[in-house]
Amino acid sequence: MLFGMKPNTYCMLLHLSQLLVFLLPGLGLVVPVVLWAINKDKEPLVDQHGRIVMNWILSAFIYVAVSVILAFVGIGFVTLAILSIIGIVFPIIGGVKANDGIVWNYPLSIPFFK
């Protein structure tokens, strides 16, 4: 049990915590990192899901940076809009699947942490 939660529930919160970026910039990065760091050594499932979330956060950061640069050409606005939608959809799908006990790698995620 992690903070009184089953591992699947904790992993779901790990995925969904990324959505905090829409409330306060930075929280969508800090909270998942803290949730992962606190329990990654205690529960292998948390470590696995944490790596997936961190891979996506880093990948999304790179994609946003490239899109901002491309915004000067015009196409970046389209990619930023798509990234905004994906930034909501992927964590929700990951959270639902984590709650069901399924490990789901986000599409388009660069595997920094293996």
* Strand residues, percent: under 5%
What percentage of residues falls in helices of 4 or more residues?
A: 55-70%
SS summary, helix count:
4
Question: Got a strand count?
Answer: 0
Structure description:
Helices cover 66% and strands 0% of the residues. The protein contains 4 helices and no strands. The chain is elongated and about 50 Å long.
Secondary structure layout plus pairing:
Blueprint: H1 7-16, H2 27-39, H3 44-71, H4 76-99
Helix pairs in contact: 1-3, 1-4, 2-3, 3-4
Give a concise summary.
This protein is an all-alpha fold and 114 residues long. The chain is built from four helices and no strands.
